[in-house]
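_Per-residue structure_
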Amino acid sequence: MKFAIVVLSLVQFLFVDIHGDYAFRGETYTMNSLEGWEPATSERIAGRPSSRKLYGFEATISSRISNDRDGSSLQIIELIGCKDYKQIQHTDSVNHSKSDLVESVVWNYSDNEPWQSVVEIVHKPIKHPETGQESVLMRKEWYIAGVNNVYVVSYANDNKITWYKWLPKIEKLLYTLNEANR
């Protein structure tokens, strides 16, 4: 059975447009990026992910932006020393339920994937200040429990066509997350 899972993961890995030039690198992990996705401006200037305290833990935050200029972004929050993803998930759940900007929140759990839980968030429509066009931000966040850390991977986009274009590739990309000491 494990051999079949390894083969399936390898096949999935081969069919993703993975690019190593802008791979994610945190304090305790690496994860490949997608071809044509580049570090956010702040990360390019600093030459490293930003760091701050989140949820009471030291954290690094690394982002990639689609080079297609389609509004897609991918972010990894690395919570160093956090061993309980449910603690982070609970805090996020409370925050989502209190937000006036959120229209819907759907949680799912998995035993067969590299992530333990995932949430899909759809924000209420907002008008662009310059164009007056309405847009709806969609986000998907995966909670991944490492051995000594928790990783929250977040994908966001405000266009349904590009949302569904990138989503399967990003889900396959999650299989490339490697934690040191994992």
Summary: The helical segments are 2-14, 41-46, 85-98, 160-173. The two ends are 21 Å apart (CA to CA). Residues 1-20 have pLDDT under 50 and may be disordered. Residues 32 and 153 are 13 Å apart (CA to CA).
